[in-house]
Amino acid sequence: MVSRDQRGPEPDSAPVIFTLGTSTRTPEEFVACCRAFGVRRIADVRRFPTSRTFPQFVREAFATFLRDAGIEYAHLGPALGGYRPGGYEAYTATPAFAAGLAELERLARGAPTAVVCSERLPWRCHRRFIARALEARGWRVVHIIEPHRVWRPAQAGVPSGPRRAVRRAR
Fold first, then answer.
1. How far is it, in rounded angstroms, from Cα 148 to Cα 37?
2. Which domain holds residue 81?
3. In degrees rounded to 5, what are phi and psi of residue 24?
4. CATH number at residue 141
5. For 9-55, what is each residue's pLDDT tens digit?
């Protein structure tokens, strides 16, 4: 018989964290995604929080429009941002990643939080590695695609990505 500790927390009792991509959204669209899921804090995991094409997502402008919408902003790019020598998956085994993950967990315990990067689709982004690490630590990760749609990866050992249907939020 498997004990509760070996199975991990029940899905409804696990702490929840979200992921969300800035993509080509307007500030209004981005805030609508946050509000649809009750997100009150953004953890920006872009290593380089800038954009020539979408100036609303340059770090300072992003923090300002979020603050105006009543959403807190934290930049965790130095510890959790992408573009790592040797690849991001290898980086997840480092003490620097562990420290960044601990800070993210601390923030997420204080307010409903979304881990944010620029890629809309989480299976194309380093957020998927952060999500896996959080799930291994007992978090339930919800990947926001649109205000009415989320994506949940397949179970371990089953391919995930664009072949999985994007489901409506409950």
1. 9
2. 13-151
3. -105, 15
4. 3.40.1010.10
5. 445 689 999 999 999 999 999 999 999 999 999 999 999 999 999 99
